[in-house]
Write a structure and sequence with these properties.
Elements: H1 2-15, E1 22-39, E2 44-58, E3 65-77, H2 81-91, E4 99-108, E5 115-127, E6 130-142, E7 147-155, E8 176-189
Antiparallel strand pairs: 1-2, 1-8, 2-3, 3-4, 4-5, 5-6, 6-7, 7-8
């Protein structure tokens, strides 16, 4: 019953113009999957990262957003201990830059009261000590007790100043593909 009430409140907040309540989505690491793909001339490398924490607040009336999604840079895994150690220490420099963070500032598009929809989340991607303006395309699916989200995007890590992991023999792409799936718990608050 609490889940149904949450969805009804969310639907009312999203449908009422001018008096929408601030809405927050709490993302839990256990319900979040972050997969990455890096192409090389010899094969494709697949791996994962772990969400440390995530809370995104937004005002449906204005589209204004704030909060952060924090990924543990040291959690990157591809199934090869030597490759993963090099990625963490030499490429991401996780001891020096332990978090990869997305900080939203605006949601473009409307989240439906129920069912599927697509929005664009504008903000800053903090990677390796630098901020990069970024737009996340996000598919949402509003369910009775939660909102499921998914996003696929490309990070131009070389253009963003990270080291090139290529070797004399092995050449890798200058971009990494990210696939993100997360389920968020909805919390409604008063207007900010």
């Amino acid at each position: 019953m609490d889940a149904l009430r949450t969805v009804l409140l969310l639907g009312t907040a999203l449908a009422t113009s001018g008096s929408c309540a601030e809405t927050a989505l709490l993302f839990e690491p256990a319900h979040t999957e972050i997969h990455w793909t890096l192409n090389t001339v010899m094969h494709t490398v697949h791996g994962t990262f772990q969400l440390r924490s995530g809370m995104v607040h937004f005002d449906p009336a204005t589209g204004k957003a704030w909060g952060e999604l924090i990924v543990d840079a040291a959690s990157g895994e591809s199934g090869s201990d030597s490759r993963d150690s090099r990625m963490r220490k030499s490429i991401l420099e996780a001891p020096k830059f332990p978090a990869i963070v997305f900080i939203p500032d605006r949601v473009e598009g409307a989240i439906p009261a129920a069912g599927a929809g697509t929005v664009k989340v504008h903000g800053a991607f903090k990677l390796h000590g630098a901020d990069h303006e970024f737009v996340l395309p996000v598919q949402v699916n509003v369910q009775p007790s939660s909102i499921s989200t998914s996003s696929s995007f490309t990070i131009p890590y070389l253009a963003w100043g990270l080291k090139n992991p290529s070797t004399f023999v092995l050449r890798v792409s200058d971009k990494v593909e990210i696939d993100l799936k997360a389920t968020g718990r909805v919390e409604l608050n008063g207007s900010r």
